Every structure is written in C-alpha cells, then in structure tokens.
What does this fold into?
Amino acid sequence: MNKVLFVNKPKGITSFDLCYKLRKVFKTKAIGHTGTLDPNASGVMIILLNRCCKLNQFLVGDDKEYIAKVKLGFRTNTLDIDGEVIEERSCTMPSKDNLLAVLKSFVGKQKQLPPMTSAIKVNGKKLIDYQRQNQKVEVKPRDIEIYALELLSLADDEFIFKAHVSSGTYIRVLADDILNSLGIIGTLTDLTRISVGGVRIDDCDDLPSVLNNQFHEHEPYDLLASRYLNIDVNDDFSIKCGKPQIFDCEADEVFVSKGREALAIYRKGSDGKYHSVRGLF
It folds into this structure.
C-alpha cells in the first residue's frame, strides 16, 4: 500500500507511538510523517506509507494552524503542561484590548529560539538529550513567520488563541513570549493542530478508526499538485530514467506526473534545463 493517510493524533501519545501503532496495522516498517506533535498535543498528522515516504522532503515546509490554551499562574521547564513546575505566582489577566494588542505585535517575520525540550538536532544530537544530560550547547534562533493570531476566548485565569504560522514555529515558545510581553507567567495546557497546508482536521481519520482498518486513502498526486506546478507527460520513460528535461515554464521546481501517477520532482539548473531531484515512483 503506497498511500497517504490523514490522522488526527490523540493526546497522550508521541508521534513515534502513533507511527508504531500504524506500522503494525499496515505491516510495514516504511512509514513516516511530515511533522511531529508533542505528546500533549492533538491534531493533524500526514502519514506516509511505503514508497510515499519519498514525498517527505517535499511536504515538510507547509504552514500550520493551531488552537492553543494558556493557563496563568505557573510556568514549567518545558513551557507546557507536561513539564515540571519551576515558577508559581498570582497573575491578573490583562484586559482584552491589551491582549489583542500584544497578539497583533507578534504577527510577521521574526526569529524564534527553539526550546531545549525539543527534538531539533545540534551536532547530530537532540536538544532534549543535551538537557537531560545537563550539557550546554549553542542553539541558534530560527526564522519563522506568524501569519495571523486570533483571540478565541478570555477568562479569569486562561485564554485561548488561534495561530496561523510557518513551519518550524513552536507554539509553546510563542505562548511564553506573549506572556512575557504581558508581564505575567503561564503555561500552554492544550494544543490542537487544526491544519497542515491544505489538510484540515475535518479531513482526518481518528486513530481508533484507522486501527480498526476504517480509513481514507489519499493520493500523492493531490498533495504535490497543490504545492507545485504540475507537468503532465505522455511518455514517462525519460522521467523514470532521471534524464534532464526542457519544460516551457518559469518555476524553479515542478512536479512531474503521468495522469495521476506521481513521477518526480524536477528543479531548474543553471543550464536552463530541469534536473531530477527525486523519483517518486
């Protein structure tokens, strides 16, 4: 089965746990996904099976949308509810206008420092492993973009907001930065990823259904055609041989297919020809 699945990951399991469970269902070791979710988070995960794992590098840069809940009064070492409480103090919820103004100030391009409790690798080692071993390492901030922030609800001790962000954005860090700007402390207590690129949470199958062999399959063609200029060819022989091509277009990268069969991603070279980046068949 060379397919793509959209799965709504439940809270309480890691992304690795999810893939491990699906590996048993589909009896394959060739399984991957296009972006992790923390154990405390739920929502959209794009799962790739068998040959579809070749798509991974072309799908990881999608923008994402989240709904996040933040509770005031305590802060953890992981910036979310899974961590150890390291600070507690009484906090007064700012006014709605004040909170809206701070949210607006975070919209745009910026740099974000990844949390030490993350799986990002520095010198081949995960940041969380450095922290566990009490080792210091230089962590460089990453370029991100916040496209939109929307306040959904406001209570005495918590607020909920929706965030539309670029790939690589950590919502728990964003939430902590927002709290710092307000002069209060808090912790991310709930997080749901509601979209990845054009895939929305309503498009996803829940995990119990998938484990019970009740799921929807999705074609690689649809995912790639929504992201790249699609070149449809009649003769796929030279494409499958990886030969350079001349396409009448200006795009730097194109998705080549025959009908609805995904064949390859091609990139324009300095010679003006398109060269194969990766075969997908």
User: Anything to note?
Assistant: The chain has eight helices and 18 strands.
